[in-house]
Design a protein that fits this description.
- Two copies of one chain form a homodimer.
- Chain A has helices at 3-13, 33-40, 123-132, 134-159, 163-180, 194-201, 205-217, 233-240, 247-252, and strands at residues 44-45, 54-56, 64-70, 73-78, 84-90, 95-96, 109-112, 117-122, 187-189, 221-224, 227-230.
- By secondary structure, chain A is α+β, with helices and mostly antiparallel strands.
- The termini of chain A are far apart.
- The interface between A and B is large, with 58 and 58 residues.
- Chain A binds a DNA duplex through α7.
DNA sequence: CGCTTCTTTGATTCAACTCAATGGATGTGG
DNA sequence: CCACATCCATTGAGTTGAATCAAAGAAGCG
């Protein structure tokens, strides 16, 4: 990276939430313009990072929250054997780093899946600014809370479902999130590898591959490398719900 | 419970965080005595609720956070077929209800597993009091963050592990948490049924039962109904780590 | 172009599930 | 106090979905 590049990107780094197209999806959501301006003074943009680069690593000191601006990110932890377990994927407008609040160090890794830009919200200033902007405090709580709810849903997906249901749920979830960002709900790119999908869903790469082929054979999707088109959304949706033996309902359902 | 008992407990309902034996584990952790007193004015105790009673239900309006004082609670969501999926168990000093912040309604059920007492921290006052007590705001963020980290660990436990590893992890986790509360780490009661353990871990009740029997045969535990004694903690610990084929390490580990 | 990495496909195996039956504990009413 | 019902847990037999093992094909990269 040359000196002139750095000069250019430093000037570009002065991105502001007020002018960001994502601000109704991201941290500033619901803030008035006065509060937005206060936030602008705190938030910093980044120059692009490349596939494989880290936003932060396990045990890194907790400096900031990160909001994805473009590209995508995977978050993962390591088990005792050093194996990766992916705990989430993040797309533009989504905020990472909440894991680090408790111990003041990050409990996971965050790695770019492709060329990615993001904004940093320094933690040492967020407390002060939360005090100044009550709505921001609320929004922070909301974001963390949503992250919790998402993880709960993920547990449900992973815990008691067939491989087919897991994969269908995964595809529908991506579709829904990308659609909210203004992209097509039926045609998009998978920024993660088959291995990463498998890891996330608790499957093997072979099973994922076989199922994608099967879904294609059944005309549910068209897939070519990383490009995917969901050609039968409603059928995929109903697959998520797990048409399992109804007798189980009695055992576990609430009257 | 006699009438005089009830009178006593009603007067005891004016429980204060400052005198509570759990206050170094619970929400007030780290607060100074002045701040503690402010918190006391907001927190309300409950009379005991019985096994099967709800602290809150799905779609209930979000009134308060709840801190378990004695007993235990399970939190669960329902899938599209109305089947229960348990997302967590809560013991004294642990705080529930963070799921509701985002939408202002609860996204899960919370049910007592046995006779249980708890404290309520009304949400409409927590924002104000967080503004008055910066340390409390930090502590709130920390608690939610910890909940996130716990869920991440749970994902790891559930996703890629054998039934044996899951159950060992579950037992060790209970042991560790109960020990922090001042109970024995090796001998305790399982307040949840086999069905609930199985549900939580994504197994069937038969598998849980068989494994408990197997663990007993292997002298890892002694179990009689709900009473369990972990007779070989170190072996149980090493089972958690999943002695799986080391070749997998290369695929997923970080250099 | 050769090397590595990722993906697909096939054959086989096995861990956990399903189905089935029994056993034990708790509770209720006669 | 016992007979009966209900609920929960245990145990066994058989099945199966996804993993493992193996190999070949396709894509990315220096």
């Amino acid at each position: 990276m040359t000196t002139s590049d750095q000069v250019i990107s430093i000037s570009k780094l002065k991105t502001s939430c007020s002018t960001c197209s994502l601000h109704e999806l991201c941290l500033p959501r619901g803030l008035n313009s006065i509060d937005l301006e206060k936030l602008d003074h705190v938030v910093k943009g980044s120059r692009p990072i490349q596939k494989g680069d880290y936003l932060f690593r396990l045990n890194d000191k907790f400096n900031a929250f990160y909001a994805v601006r473009s590209g995508s990110v995977k978050a993962y932890i390591l088990n005792e054997l050093g194996e990766e377990q992916i705990i989430g994927f993040y797309f533009p407008g989504e905020v990472l780093g909440f894991d680090a609040i408790d111990q003041n160090i990050h409990t996971c890794f965050a790695m770019a899946l492709e060329t990615t830009t993001y904004c940093s919200i320094p933690y040492d200033r967020i407390h002060d600014i939360c005090m100044q902007i009550p709505d921001l405090q609320k929004q922070m709580f909301r974001l963390i809370s949503r992250e919790l709810t998402n993880e709960n849903k993920m547990l449900l997906t992973i815990n008691n479902r067939t491989a087919e249901e897991k994969l269908a749920t995964f595809l529908i979830s991506l579709s829904t999130r990308l659609h909210k960002l203004g992209y097509s709900a039926i045609e998009f790119n998978l920024p993660m590898s088959r291995q990463e999908i498998a890891n996330y869903l608790g499957l093997t790469i072979e099973t994922v591959s076989r199922l994608l082929t099967k879904f294609q054979r059944e005309q549910l999707i068209q897939i070519d490398k990383k490009e995917i088109k969901l050609t039968n959304l409603s059928e995929l949706h109903s697959m998520c719900e797990g048409a399992r033996c109804p007798s189980a309902e009695g055992k576990n359902s609430v009257a």
